[in-house]
Design goal:
about 475 residues, alpha/beta, Rossmann fold, GMP Synthetase, Chain A, domain 3, twelve-stranded mixed sheet, four-stranded mixed sheet, 13 helices, globular
Length: about 475
């Protein structure tokens, strides 16, 4: 039924689309904010005031519980650890500082067999929610959780992301994200849809262009969301185009809490001038194994009660503050699909300075590097990021890479298995048409996609020059200062 309604969605009037989104939003609200949500919120707020010693003791207790749970109920870890000669008794001696005694979990393992990470005791007992994303690699991964897991994830963001920014998930909000709420790539306004159940206005990320900016501004002024959320670069692109046209909002939102791309100081400045609010950075992942949020002093704090972050060298050992290393994450909140020493694919560095906010029990990141995706520029000037949707649910597609040769010409590199078909090519072209417009898409099969020296490949490569202001923002170091 849901699949049928999704297929019907593009062909009904905007008012009916708003109604459908609101009905979905009501169910979504109950799922995320029901049950023990308020209890979880109170827990994160209490831990916000803890001492480093209290947080250390709590995280150790939760880590021990998660490791036992993984060994007893998760097929992947039981097999992997037993092959490494690690038994249940060995896990009792593992502390956050001794996690390097356990093997690393590569992202490729989760991508190839996500169900082997699912705890057996949750199968058949609770409804499992599945989310797909590819991040910057261009290849989908599947994250699994229960509704109660999801409530814990949102509770943490309510306190640490939205709460620190002075707002709440219950406040009227806007979102610029990856959902295709405006069905066609070449379309007339409105470029937003409204979710009455959550007082949320959802904007298309795929229609932000100089010609369309005024429609986004008019909609923001009409609905007046208190908190702006979603993709950092989409908000920056909108703000930059507003500034170029002398446009600002008629009101002042409380905050913009932005994610998915690195938020630099220069980007924050542009957003502040046009959208009349401060932008706060959030770092997380669809796997929900890590959360870092920006405090009032402009530092990015990791929440160890959400997930333990390690920054390690190529041998899996911790690096000192200020030194870049691979980020590994151990989730503490996901009962359905725990991830332990999971290599998320990003590079970061710890700060060697304490934060004036006084939250010494929450470690400070100097910065996260290596997760800024290249930007796609459409024929009409729109700029879009987060192209993981191109490769989701495509049979036979193992890896994919997008190369923008010109504003209206793309090359797609696909690594496929034998059952990839012409229907897959047609689907890729249709997805480009829906989101970018009338462009040429050349698709080619390749045996492999070249990796960087860190073993990753770039999901998006753009050969199209960007405006100078955009380039400056990408090259400005994110010091964590507003």
């Amino acid at each position: 039924m849901a699949h049928f309604l999704e297929r019907l969605y593009p062909y009904v009037p905007v008012s009916i689309q708003n109604l459908g989104i609101s009905i979905f939003g009501l169910a979504w609200k109950r799922e995320r904010l029901g049950g023990k949500f308020q209890e979880y919120v109170r827990g994160f707020r209490e831990r916000d005031r803890w001492s480093p010693e209290e947080m250390q003791e709590y995280v150790q207790t939760e880590l021990s519980r998660v490791l036992r749970h993984a060994f007893e109920h998760v097929p992947y870890y039981r097999k992997k650890w037993q092959r490494a000669g690690i038994n249940k008794n060995d896990l009792e001696g593992i502390t956050p500082k001794r996690l390097s005694h356990l093997p690393v979990t590569p992202k490729t393992d989760l991508r190839s067999d996500p169900d082997s990470f699912v705890a057996q005791k949750t199968k058949g007992q609770e409804k499992l929610l599945r989310y797909q994303s590819s991040g910057s690699t261009g290849t989908p991964i599947t994250a699994v959780c229960t509704a109660d897991d999801h409530r814990r994830f949102i509770a943490a963001r309510e306190v640490r992301s939205l709460g620190w920014a002075g707002t709440s998930i219950h406040a009227p909000r806007s979102m610029i994200g990856g959902r295709l709420v405006v069905p066609r790539g070449i379309s007339r306004p409105p470029f937003e849809r409204y979710n009455w159940a959550e007082r949320q206005v959802y904007f298309s990320a795929y229609h932000i262009s100089p010609e369309n900016v005024r429609f986004y501004v008019d909609a923001l002024n009409h609905y007046q969301p208190i908190v702006l959320t979603g993709y950092a670069h989409s908000h920056f692109s909108l703000a930059r185009m507003m500034a170029e046209q002398g446009l600002t909002l008629d009101y002042e939102p409380v905050a913009a809490v932005l994610c998915s791309e690195k938020l630099t100081r220069a980007m924050k400045t542009v957003i502040k001038r046009a959208l009349r609010t401060r932008a706060y950075e959030e770092y997380g992942a669809v796997e929900n194994c890590v959360l870092a949020t920006e405090c009032e002093c402009g530092r990015l704090h990791v929440s160890p009660d959400f997930g333990i972050m390690e920054i390690v060298d190529d041998n899996g050992h911790p690096v000192p503050p200020g030194v870049e290393g691979r980020i590994l994450c151990t989730s503490l909140l996901n009962e359905a699909q725990p991830l332990i020493r999971y290599e998320i694919g990003d590079v970061g560095a710890w700060s060697n300075e304490s934060c004036p906010c006084g939250r010494n029990h929450l470690p400070v990141l100097k910065e996260v590097v290596g997760r800024m995706e290249d930007v796609i520029v459409g024929p009409d000037g729109r700029q879009t990021v987060r192209f993981h949707w191109v490769f989701i649910d495509l049979p036979g597609v193992m890896e994919g890479q997008i190369i923008q040769e010109a504003v209206d010409r793309f090359t797609i590199n696909l690594v496929t298995s034998g059952d990839s078909s012409k229907e897959v090519d047609a689907m890729i072209r249709r997805r480009f048409m829906e989101r970018i417009g009338n462009v040429s898409v050349h698709i080619q099969r390749v045996p492999e996609i070249p990796r960087t020296d860190r073993g990753k490949f770039r999901g998006v490569i753009s050969k199209v020059p960007l405006p100078r202001t955009h380039t400056e923002c990408h090259t400005t170091s994110n010091t964590g200062l507003s």
